[in-house]
Design goal:
The chain is an alpha+beta fold. About 40% of the residues lie in helices and about 20% in strands. The protein is built from 3 helices and 2 strands. Strands 1-2 form a two-stranded antiparallel sheet. Strand 1 and strand 2 form a beta hairpin.
Length: about 90
């Protein structure tokens, strides 16, 4: 799972960098199998403000994936994607 995550994240990082015409740094993604009720604690506690994308996965393997960023990084990314409109 970690290798699949690395490959997918690397491809996504390259595509994002081309989309916003800016260098994008990536750290190694974490792959963890969790129960949904454990998620808040793993992401820094219930008071931690994050932005993210939650995706359901169906097919040979069913499950879900989540991509999260700290609020400030998420706002910066949206501003880049919107070409400075925010």
């Amino acid at each position: 799972m970690r290798e699949i995550g690395n490959i997918g994240a690397g491809n996504a990082t390259t595509a994002l960098a081309e989309l916003i015409n800016c260098k994008v740094d990536m750290s190694v993604p974490q792959v963890r199998l969790l129960e949904f009720n454990e998620l808040g604690e793993v992401l820094g506690g219930e008071e931690q403000v994050l932005v993210g994308i939650y995706l359901g996965v169906e097919g040979d393997v069913n499950g879900s994936m989540m991509f999260t960023l700290p609020e400030k990084a998420g706002l910066h990314l949206v501003n880049k994607l919107m070409s400075g409109m925010l």
